[in-house]
Every structure is written in C-alpha cells, then in structure tokens.
Hints:
Layout: E1 8-28, E2 33-54, E3 68-69, E4 76-95, E5 98-115, E6 119-135, E7 140-150, E8 161-162, E9 171-172, E10 182-193, E11 199-218, E12 228-248, E13 257-270, E14 288-298, E15 303-312, E16 318-320, E17 324-327, E18 332-341, E19 347-353, E20 360-367, E21 376-384, E22 389-395
Antiparallel strand pairs: 1-2, 2-3, 2-4, 4-5, 5-6, 6-7, 7-10, 8-9, 10-11, 11-12, 12-13, 13-14, 14-15, 15-18, 16-17, 17-20, 18-19, 19-22, 20-21
Amino acid sequence: SGPWTxxxxxxxxxxxxxxxxxxxxxxxxxxxxxxxxxVEVAQTIQDSSLLLGALTPGPGSxxxxxxxxxxxxxxxxxxxxxxxxxxxxxxxQINPRMTLESSLIVEYSEIEQAGDVNxxxxxxxLKPKLDYRFNASNTLQFRATLxxxxxxxxxxxxxxxxxxxxDDQDTVAxxxxxxxxxxxxxxxxxxxxxxxxxxxxxxxxxxxxxxNKIGKIDISxxxxxxxxxxxxxxxxxxxxxxxxxxxxxxxxxxxRALLTGGxxxxxxxxxxxxxxxxxxxxxPYDRGSFQIGFRHDLPPQRLNYGFNYNKRFDGGRLMFDxxxxxxxxxxxxxxxxxxxxxxxxxxxxxxxxxxxxxESCIKRYRYQGYVRDGVLREIENICTTTGLLVNFRVRxxx
Length: 398
C-alpha cells in the first residue's frame, strides 16, 4: 500500500459547567399534613467549538492539521441557561395505610446562545405530580403515580458537532430552536413480600405520552443536498411492564443463597417521524429484556460466589435519519464471580465478564435520497466485541 494521505481534519472542544442552589422550608399542619415549599435555581453553561479542514486546492493551515479551513455555520457557541423552579409539596397521611403526596413545580428558564448564532428564548412549564401509596397489609403495597415531566436539553445539540456513530457524516448541524420534550408519565405498581422474608415480587406498568419528541428534522438546502439535525419532530408514546423478583433458597437446603430474576416487556411508538415510512420505536426503548442472577454467601468460609445473565429481546430499536436507518444490537451478557476474604484480612475477587464473547453489530441501511423513497444503496455492518474480560482484584478496608 502507498503512503497515507490526510483528507479530513476535525477538532472539537467542549466545556460544561453547572451550578445549583436549592432552599426549602418544611412545616406540619396537624398530624396528617406536611408541607414543603422552596425554590431551586440552576445555571448551566456549555462552551463548544468545531474546526473542520479538508484536502482542497486552497492554502493549508497548521491550525487545521495542514489542510484547508472549511467554514461551518454555528461551529462556535456558548449556551447558558438560567432556570428558576419554585415548588410546593404536600404530604397527606389519609389514614394509617394510605398516603398521598402532591407537588407542583413551576419552571421558568431563559436560554441564551452566543457566538456564531445569537439568540435568547424564554420558557415556562407547569410540572404537577401525584403519588399515591396504599399498604393493603404488612406484605402488600399498591402505588400509583401521575406526573407531567419536561426533559433536560442537551446543549451540545444547539451548535454544530461531530457524529461519532456515522463515519460518513463529518458534522451535524446544530439547532438553536430546539425545545424541551414535554410528556405525561403514568405508573401503577404493586410490591409483595413473601412470608418469613423468603423473597419479594414487584411489578409496575408505565405509560409515557410525548407532545414534542426530539428526533431528526429536515433542514436540506436542496433536494440534491440532504441535511438533518435534531429537532422537535412530533408526538410519540412508550409503555411497558416491568416485573422483578427474588427468592431465598433455604427451602432447598441452600441457606444464604438468593435467586433473582426480572422481565421487561415494553414498546415505543414514534408517530410523526418525517423520515420514516412506518411508525417505529425509539432509543432507549426496545422490546424488553430478561435477567437472572444467583448469589450464595458462605460466612464461615468468608466466601461468596454467583452469576448474572441479561438478554434483551430483538426488534423495536430503530433510528431513522434523512437518508439512512439503523438497527441496534441486542446484547446478552454473562458475568460470574467468586470472592473470598483471607490472607492479611484482604478480600480477593475473581470476576469474568462477557463470558460468551458476544459480538455487537449495528446494521445501517443507506438510501439514495430520502429513506421514505426506499431506494437502498448500501448496507453497513459495524461490529465490535470486547472478548472475555477476566479481572482479579484485591481490596482492603482500613
């Protein structure tokens, strides 16, 4: 092979700072009512910069790795948010077995962007919440929550940045008009403790309804030059059932052994993605997962050992862009360990991770023009593996 030729230079810089002050006052209004009122003030600042150089006939510059500077809009930016959140929380002991916590947060914020783009925007949101608990018995509890939430924005999306997930895309345009996601979350659940502390079972069902889900939006200057960026794309929903449990195995003659398990079944729906020809799910939600674990403690020997296995279900984890779509890997992991306290009162732990040496592959489908037109051009498989990882650790407590 011949000598390497540099044809692209990318240099990114970022500095993130956050300061939060919170003050509150709590008082009781009789035996059954308690109130907390206060305010939280937060300042968040992110500085970001991006330099791009390319191999062109123009003059080179050491600042751009010897290549020619290619000016990019919205590449240097300082984003500052000042957020004020007065709040009030009311706790009500309805009776010895029922409680209700209600709260209201009023969020006022100002986001200012300076640099290549100068913009100031103001937001205000109401965030009410109800949290109900009912202890049916000493072993059984029901709970329900209804809450209006507002997501925290990633200020890195406001200005131009690189895309580490796609080597064919040098930079991603920022969006100074990005707004927080608003969504209503409802959840109901039940906790049950087995007799004689033999184990626990808990289950919860959740539902989230998004009004302005963040996804990819079209900012193409021309049909022959397709560009996208993160923006408020439309409505979406996510819902699912999560069940977890644990069981002590003393009844099998294995004292101090604990078996744990979990099952998650969930679905997400992006209703109005402008690039997708179908309704689809969104990250981080997929079809769900199951996991099983085992731990056995042997106090006389000062020894414990066990394993954890986790597997996610296939399907549902898709990401659409203007001219490509990606399916994400469905990993499974097996980890086992043995740990003993011994010589010099040190704790020695031998641990093996990724015991099946699983390979994770992202599959990306690239299209000629828009994804929705369906003209497939290329399929990429991006595969990585860490292999089997074995650790030996020695720990001491002083």
